[in-house]
What we know:
By secondary structure, this protein is an alpha/beta fold. It has 3 domains: 37-67; 77-267, Rossmann fold (3-Layer(aba) Sandwich), CATH 3.40.50.720; 272-441, N-(1-d-carboxylethyl)-l-norvaline Dehydrogenase, domain 2 (Orthogonal Bundle). 57% of the residues lie in helices and 9% in strands. The chain contains 20 helices and 8 strands. The chain has an 8-stranded mixed beta sheet, sandwiched between helices. The longest helix has 32 residues, at 3-34. The radius of gyration is 27 Å and the shape is globular. The termini are far apart.
Amino acid sequence: MSADHKNSEVDEKQKDQSEIIAETNAEDEVKQQFSESQEDKSVFNSGLLASLFDKASKIKSKRDNAGLNPEEIEKTVLNNMTKPEGVKAPQQLRLAFLGGGSFGTAMSNLSARNGCNSTLWVRNKRTVKSLQKTRINKKYLPGYTLDERLKYEHDLKTAVQDKDIIFVAVPSSAFRETLKNIRPYLSGQSIVSLTKGMEKDTFSLMSDIIKEELPEVNFGVMSGPNLAVEIMQNMPSASVIASDSELLRHAVQSALHSAFFRIFSSDDIKGVELGGALKNIYAIAMGMAASYNVGENTKAMLLTRALAEMSRFGVATGANPLTFLGLSGVGDLYATCSSELSRNYRIGNMLGKGMSIEAAVKKLGQTAEGVNTIQQVHEKATKLGIYMPITHALYAVIYDDQAALGVALNLMETGFRSDVEFVMPHEYSNEALNAQMTAATTK
């Protein structure tokens, strides 16, 4: 045996001995801490803590040997999860998901994994055939294989007939038309909107459109920080189902709640929906800011002032301001403003680099709801006199062709308001802000 090999063995033995001594010292230190008082000593000697340490070591050993198994985790959580009373078991729920975009696909896949009888409707017949053959949504979620139990359909009648809940996940521009198309086939199904946005030219939220087109239908809206790719990757996520119907809220929770996806409930439909729509405005602003390589201070300022605008607009239009502190408000705002997976963030980033809105939308190749929402909210806020400087600034950049940097600098000069909304009165109105911005850009 060579000298080098012997030296290596000696080094390994010394290393092992050092580790054993370190572990022994650590164990002695823990025992010493617990024996410092009589009370702690009695607890330790009772065997309660000893049994906990023993269990912890066994769990750690098992985890180190086997690794984390997502399927086992999900099975354990589902077995322990309390099911809402009076709701069908997931395997009995019949669901239709209208819209083969990334989020509609992710939600339909999640429900199928939960055992629901789930059908994903896609308008294009060729796309349906591709999904049936490959079980991969090549355009929106490439690289992710969908659950083998998920069904696909291009015929709208077949997709929605005899279902319990119809989830609508089409772009806001197609939402009203989709409801009109399914109306002849409804016979008591509930409708849940997965669409975040506002209808162009009407300022109608999706819940408004449902009430107009299907006044007798039981409905709800779902929104939250839900990037589809992360949901497909089994990253822990959560969303909010808002409805006046407790039974519908429970049914949606039963269908979509899993080990990695949690559903909270709310009865503030307006607030939950506005959170999902308004945050797209500020994702564009954050993407634009990122193109200028701004610092963390700037990002934090933009996020908090965005939240103030959202809650201010929400209160003026009938929402509960506290809703904006939840998942559908600040949660969705943070996720959308901090991730390059966000379509609106990417649009803003392209705009900040000098690309026109038309070129940016074309390059994105998907719907970015924030572009339309900026126009809608700008006009509504101006009409109602709601102070929304960030929204007005974005409108000036996108629709009035003003320089982004100049508008941003002007924002820093306008108004002296209190930090927290609804705490102190504000003297500056939208009218005053618009006057200041106009004056600054005409110098």
